[in-house]
Write a structure and sequence with these properties.
globular; about 150 residues; three-stranded antiparallel beta sheet
Length: about 150
Amino acid sequence: MSKKIINIVVPLILLILLFIALNFILSDEQKQKVDNTKLVGKTSESTQNAPKKAIVEWIEEMIVCESGGNTLALGDNGKAHGILQFHEPTFWAYNEKYKILSDLERGEVPNVIFDEYVQRELTKRILLEDEGWRNWYNCSKIIGLDRIDLNG
């Protein structure tokens, strides 16, 4: 195998193995900390014809828009990571706030930022904040989330 192919394939395989391992590392307790109830967004008066959807449905649409569902997606010149395109500082700040990974240290963010479960759980909480949709401004506009009140 040529050196060029090895330099591409080996890091990719290692990255995939890291993500598989991370899914096993997350304890069931950490995964169960999240309330998985389906929250339904209500439309404002100006968007009464917009569909009402559970927050998890909005997140699925956001994933398709942001990454096409590619867990290993990199965007924004390599600054945005994973299915929901988190930047490391944003991922760190919101995890500190919501403690999805309660023992996460700052230096560990690159090792877990691609974790699909953690990205989804952080996003659930962020979207319930006032104007939390702005973290995904373009895709929120595209899918119509900017017109929805998920708390209403």
